[in-house]
Write a structure and sequence with these properties.
about 300 residues, alpha/beta, two-stranded antiparallel sheet, 11 strands, about 45% helix
Length: about 300
């Protein structure tokens, strides 16, 4: 199937005449007729009923015309997006991400894109995991970076960006900082710091900590606040493993009596634009660089 065949069919349907359609497309009428005949042979159906009065669509033609129109619109969009990419990546892409992914990998990806595609605009929104998946499904965002519990495997609409284990964040001055690994029994007298319901870390906390500790917990809105409270010695919190940092006021301790695994996934809209594909590739590459740096 060729673009010129589809253009010929749409022109005839619009004009109701082979002659008028040939004039509109600057083609000879025999050439136009050949385009239509070859497409009808390929599809195995007649698209027009021809008569001295003109051409009318068959039932098959009526059903296929909307599809032909969408095909040409998609091709036109691809041409436009390719031109935009060649000119430096013009356009705007909406990204929704969980907070844990933004600082270590999404921001470096945006920095790289700013230098390589200066005309590309990106809207970044921090959302809860459930809201991110809905935003991508509904088209509010073209790209989502979402966290899930467990070790997920990649599927067609998701790319695995990172996997890890949840442990305990404690103050470097806490008695727990010297403990090799943590059990619930060692935490009875500790103050827990929680994120609101909807965060993946809250889901883990609800399943791990005893009810009494949850009833007396601090609850804050952002993970950065959690770290500030922990570093001040005001409580403990669950958090993803990270490599130790010099003069770090918080210490990561592994959990001995539970296996709390997590996965970061990237999901894209079912028909991502060319510029969205560029942004998704940059985010994916940023996570690979992050993993390589951790191993090195």
């Amino acid at each position: 199937m060729e673009i010129r065949q589809i253009q010929a069919v749409l022109a005839i349907a619009e004009n109701g005449s082979f002659r008028k359609a040939a004039r509109q497309l600057y083609l000879g009428q025999p050439t136009l007729s050949q385009h239509v005949r070859s497409l009808e042979v390929e599809l195995g159906v007649a698209l027009f009923e021809r008569s001295a009065a003109g051409a009318t669509l068959t039932r098959a033609g009526e059903q296929l015309i909307p599809r032909f129109t969408r095909v040409l619109a998609t091709i036109g969009q691809l041409d436009q997006e390719a031109a935009e990419l060649a000119a430096g990546g013009a356009g705007r892409v909406r990204v929704a991400a969980v907070s844990a992914a933004i600082a270590p990998a999404v921001i470096p990806a945006l920095q790289q894109l700013q230098s390589t595609h200066p005309r590309l605009g990106i809207t970044l929104t921090e959302l809860l995991p459930s809201a991110i998946e809905e935003a991508v499904r509904s088209g509010v965002a073209e790209i989502g970076v979402v966290a899930r519990s467990g070790i997920a495997t990649p599927v067609e609409e998701h790319e695995v960006l990172q996997t890890g284990t949840i442990g305990l964040l404690v103050s470097s001055s806490s008695r727990l900082a010297a403990v090799g690994s943590i059990t619930r029994d060692q935490l009875i007298d500790e103050q827990v710091i929680l994120l609101p319901h909807g965060h993946l870390l809250r889901k883990f906390a609800d399943g791990y900590f005893p009810d009494g500790m949850l009833r007396n917990a601090y609850e804050v809105s952002h993970h950065s606040t959690v770290e500030h409270l922990v570093s001040a010695g005001l409580g403990i919190a669950l958090g993803p493993y990270r490599t130790p940092r010099r003069n770090d006021p918080t210490v990561y301790r592994p959990i001995a009596d539970a296996q709390l695994d997590w996965t970061l996934l990237m999901t894209t809209h079912s028909t991502p634009s060319a510029v969205a594909a560029v942004v998704a590739s940059a985010i994916s590459r940023s996570f690979r660089d992050l993993a390589a740096a951790a191993q090195g």
